[in-house]
Amino acid sequence: MIFDSVEMAPADPILGLTVAYNQDPNPDKINLGVGVYKDADGRTPVLQAVKDAERRMLAGETSKSYKPIEGDANYASAVQHLLLDRPNESDHEAIKSKRMVTAHTPGGTGGLRVVGDYLKANHPDMTLWLTTPTWANHPNIFQASGVPTKSFSYFDDQTFSLDFDAMIATFEKIPAGDAVLLHGCCHNPTGVDPTPQQWRDIGYLLHKRGVLVILDFAYQGFGDGLVEDAVALHTMLEPGREMLVVSSFSKNFSLYNERVGAVSAVASDAKTAQTVLSQLKRVIRSNYSNPPGHGSAIITGVLNDRGLRMNWEAELSVMRNRINSMRRMFVEKLTERGVDRDFSFIGQQRGMFAMTGFTKAQVDQLREEYAIYIVGSGRVNVAGMTDNNMDRLCDAIAAVLGG
Ligand code: LMR
Questions:
Q1: C or N terminus of the chain, fewer CB within 10 Å?
Q2: pTM for the model
Q3: Sheet holding 179-183, edge to edge
Q4: Percent of the chain with pLDDT over 90
């Protein structure tokens, strides 16, 4: 039979872990695998601002006809302003000059795949450089698009900090015409980002060398704030510089299953931007034709309404502050237990994730003996920690590490 020759694919290292977690009968199990925010009660909430926008949307909706291939113009505009607006400043030059264009994509992953297919079709000699480590799905996406990838050192796993010198040393050698995929903030999996000055240096160097910057921007607002987290964009996007930005609203709007994101291209001028958009549309049309409507209507409804936006920003800061307080508590509780390692770096990292440095054997032991689910690389989702599971978690880690 034809299907008999098909081989079983390996489980996804992140989403496969959720499947195993769901099957685990242990009532005290803890999931620190997939990057999904949990509140203090361990629930992934629907934000109130989202609920309110949905109510209005349902009342006002008159049609479910197809969207334009690139999505609605008011969504694109809302996304651009979220990315680039700064308090008390006029519109960013990239918006005013119309050299920024935006297409609505199904989630950040969908956006990355659109970028991959666009690169393959329009820049066939380009190699894409990825941070080491990076999100486990990045290599899969670009391999599926047929874009060759190489890696550069990003994280020093001895000091648990940015390996800036090694990164710059690689950037000095990247050939013109290649691209670098950087994480806009809250690097996944390390939680380690460049400082504003380092972003400035990176942007200058890559522009000088003729290397395209692609920002995967999935955690805006989860680090230090919406504007603060856009520092990479603000420092690198100077007049005349090009960039691709992939946005995801899974996390900051808690809209995981609505699959809502975007690809923005910033070209040298408005005419070139329209040309790039035409190619993005071509990729989208042959892939999923045009985007789904529900999630983008929520985003637009929230961002374009003063009251809903204020409420959303307040809910976002609750999520951000909870994650940062879990980081502090995790370090304190491990220290209290006399764990023979300094975990203070976790308090300095930002976003959902931290690299613990746990070995594969320790990760396996935590899962098998304590029903604690951590990605094999030793990445933990800090947003899965709560006041209620913290003691059990830290007891188990102390036992495994030999506290
Ligand atoms: C993660 O890294 O856990 C998230 O981005 C979810 C995913 O799709 O992997």
A1: N
A2: 0.96
A3: 100-105, 261-266, 243-248, 212-217, 179-183, 128-132, 149-153
A4: 96
